[in-house]
Write a structure and sequence with these properties.
The chain has 458 residues and is α/β, with parallel strands linked by helices. The protein has 3 domains: 175 residues, Immunoglobulins (Immunoglobulin-like), CATH 2.60.40; 221 residues, von Willebrand factor, type A domain (Rossmann fold, 3-Layer(aba) Sandwich); 37 residues, no CATH class. It contains 12 helices and 21 strands. Helix 2 packs antiparallel against helix 3 and helix 6 runs parallel beside helix 12. The chain is elongated. The relative contact order is 0.09. Pfam families: DUF58. It comes from Spirosoma utsteinense. This is DUF58 domain-containing protein. Keywords: Membrane, Transmembrane, Transmembrane helix. InterPro entries: DUF58 (IPR002881), vWFA_dom_sf (IPR036465).
């Protein structure tokens, strides 16, 4: 029964059967053709039998096994965890152990969350040949994903029958916040190439008095820190190179990412919710803060205060942040800023940089929460990060051709103006803010953090 379930009919066999049916029908008009068609059909039936024997015949690799499961081998290589919002590489390894060339069709049963039915690959492998198929998957939700089997349909050179092999059945893989993006920023920061992903070099407006080293001048450094004696002592055949005094940044400053899990963060963009964009940016920002010797912490909130991870910079802090962000769940209820303020005042006693990831669509929505934001800004350096409506921007960039479009653009201009008005309102009360598109959230947030640190505000 196992072999029968693994046996499938190829298209070539169906076409051949249709041709024989037509030939048998035509033989009624030409009786002398009938014996020839009969002989041809017997030969065809023999070829089908030979094809089945070739596919199910045990190979030398199978030893004493009679099920032939060693005639072909496949393996799916999946990372131990997937990165949310990123293209994750997957590979399927194929090995032909038949003594003849085979054509294969590979159907990978990927998790249902991807809603894809096109993960079908075709390949041709010679005898004892191996081949690797590479493709990518981009998850848009955190959580556990269940992979099914790798189905491999093998056809012999006759191509009349298929034999199905199944490998790698029932594997669970967790989708974490975007650790690939975190690693990218970490690598670029280590090699001073952050400008490649939108990082700006911020001119230092102030510095601590703790001397670190004398190093060559680079564009953006404060000219007031030039060390003229070190410059004069340096002998450079290609010309004098300015030397500057470098000072250490203020370290061990608490940096908290406050993540709003309320209704306003449910809006989707490119498959991800604004909440997932905020979670990915928080992971990157926390890692950058730890690289700068600051202490990073997380606080999540909605109608209730969620989880709080105190700011720290010990070696395992990144893993703690990653696990906390991975396990975040929400019902997207209305946000309670009063509970947020109470929790911050109770648990965060030291003056800290608070990066509040939220969203305001109108000025009136801001005014309802402004008293609590002002109280937070009184005790801490508060940075409010909210989102630009990209769909609205696309509408405003298109020319209006009729009355309805003029009306829609007018309403759109009103909402776009309110977003800018929110920035002015926050600035008026001494609250830092970022208005950004979702795709630029991480770069703009890290830029602002580096700017605040360069100005000595934290």
């Amino acid at each position: 029964m196992t072999r029968i379930r693994a046996l499938f009919v190829a298209n070539r066999l169906w076409f051949a059967l249709i041709a024989f049916v037509l030939l048998f029908v035509a033989a009624y008009g030409f009786p002398w053709h009938f014996p020839l068609v009969q002989v041809g059909f017997v030969v065809f039936a023999g070829l089908v039998g030979i094809d089945a024997w070739l596919l199910f015949r045990p190979t030398a690799d199978s030893g004493n096994r009679t099920d032939g499961t060693e005639s072909f081998f496949a393996r799916r290589d999946v990372p131990a965890r997937l990165s949310n919002g990123d293209e994750n590489p997957l590979t399927i390894y194929l090995e032909n152990r038949y003594f003849f060339q085979v054509d294969v069709e590979v159907i990978d049963e990927i998790p249902f969350q991807f809603q894809r039915r096109d993960v079908l690959f075709q390949a041709r492998l010679g005898p004892r040949q191996t081949q690797t198929i590479r493709y990518g998957l981009r998850p848009t939700r955190r959580g556990e994903y269940s992979f099914g089997a790798v189905n491999v349909f093998v056809l012999s050179p006759l191509g009349l029958l298929k034999r199905r092999y199944q490998f790698e059945s029932g594997r669970m893989v967790a989708v974490y916040p975007s650790f690939l993006q975190m690693r990218q920023y970490e690598l670029l920061a280590a090699t001073n190439r952050l400008s490649e992903v939108g990082m700006k070099r911020i001119r230092r407006l102030g510095h601590s008095m703790e001397f670190e080293q004398v190093r060559p001048y680079t564009t953006g450094d404060d000219v007031r820190t030039v060390n003229w004696k070190a410059t004069a002592r340096r002998s450079d055949p290609q010309g004098a190179s300015l030397q500057i005094n470098a000072y250490q940044d203020e370290r061990s400053q608490p940096v908290y990412c406050l993540i709003d899990k309320g209704r306003v963060m449910q809006s989707p963009f490119a498959g991800l919710t604004l909440l997932d964009y905020a979670i990915n940016a928080s992971l990157v920002l926390s890692n950058i803060a730890l690289q700068k010797q600051d202490r990073a912490g997380i606080l999540t909130f909605s109608d209730q205060v969620g989880q709080l991870l105190p700011a720290d910079r010990r070696s395992g802090q990144v893993l703690k942040i990653l696990e906390l962000l991975y396990r975040q769940k929400t019902r997207f209820m209305e946000t309670d800023y009063e509970r947020l303020y109470t929790s911050v005042r109770t648990h965060i006693r030291q003056r800290s940089l608070l990066l509040l990831f939220t969203n305001f669509e109108t000025v009136s929505a801001l005014h309802r929460q402004l008293p609590y934001l002002r109280r937070l800004a009184k005790d801490h350096l508060l940075l409010v990060i909210f989102f630009e409506n990209t769909e609205l921007r696309g509408l405003l960039d298109q020319p209006a051709t009729d009355t309805e479009q003029i009306y829609l653009k007018t309403i759109g201009e009103k909402f776009a103006f309110e977003k800018k008005q929110i920035v002015k309102e926050l600035t008026q009360y001494g609250i830092q803010s970022i208005l950004t598109t979702p795709q630029n959230l991480t770069a703009n947030t890290v830029n602002k953090y580096l700017e605040l640190k360069a100005r000595g505000m934290i």
